[in-house]
Amino acid sequence: MQNPIQIIGLIVACSLLGSAASSANISSKPYQASYQETSSVGGKAVRTYATDGKGHGRSEITRDSGRKDVSLLDLPNHRITILRGDSKTAISMPLRDNDVGMLAQFGSEMRAGGKPLGSKVIDGHPCHGRHYDLGETSEDLWTGDDIGVRVFSKVQSKFGTTESHLRSFSTQAPDPKVFAIPADYNQVPMSGGQGL
Asked: Which of 27, 83, 36 is nearest to 55 (CA)?
């Protein structure tokens, strides 16, 4: 059984890769995307994703309150890092080989499952949709056939509803600096060698 730190690490990894249903779908092509998120519980936020197509990912969420959370995924070096801007701390968690495999397996199972919702055009993108039941949570995920990433998703749980709308998308490779830990951050390793 996984301990709470391992579960947090897995959640961070999934958030870096998109919605729950599209998690572990690690893109082999570089892209940058931003989303407007609206939650019945957490209010509004802007989430941005960036990947270099080589196993590096960045997820950044900025809430209306101004709070910003950043997570970095470094698959080549088997590491997830959470950047805490308020304390200038970088908390790093190792990933074992089987953790990476578990993420890929989860993503494959999710992509193979789900109920088709058909196709429609959303904000100019031809999309196909799938509905996923994830225990106490469900997700309707609409993926752009033209761009290969989420265009819209709606997640519902007992805690409320969150909708995510694509606002910008680019196939331009991000600056490698976005995947680096800032030089003025204090690096704190977590659970040395324990992995997820």
From this structure: 27
Task: Domains for the chain: give ranges and CATH numbers.
Answer: 4-189 (2.50.20.10)
| Per-residue confidence (pLDDT) for residue 193, from 0 to 100 | 46
Query: What stretches in the chain show pLDDT beneath 50?
Result: 1-25, 192-196
Helix (H, G, I), strand (E, B), or coil: what is residue 9? helix
Distances (CA, A) of 15 to 3, 11, 108: 19, 6, 16
Residue 65: what pLDDT?
86
Strands (E), 64-191: 68-74, 79-84, 89-94, 115-122, 125-134, 137-144, 150-157, 160-170, 186-189
pLDDT in the model for residue 45: 95
The answer to whether residues 21 and 134 touch, using CB atoms and an 8 Å cutoff, is: yes
Check if the beta carbon of residue 44 is closer than 8 Å to that of residue 64: yes
- Going from the C-alpha of 196 to that of each of 79, 150, 166, 169, 190, the distances in angstroms are 10, 26, 30, 31, 10
Sequence-ordered list of residues with C-beta below 8 angstroms from that of 8, at least 6 positions apart, any chain? none
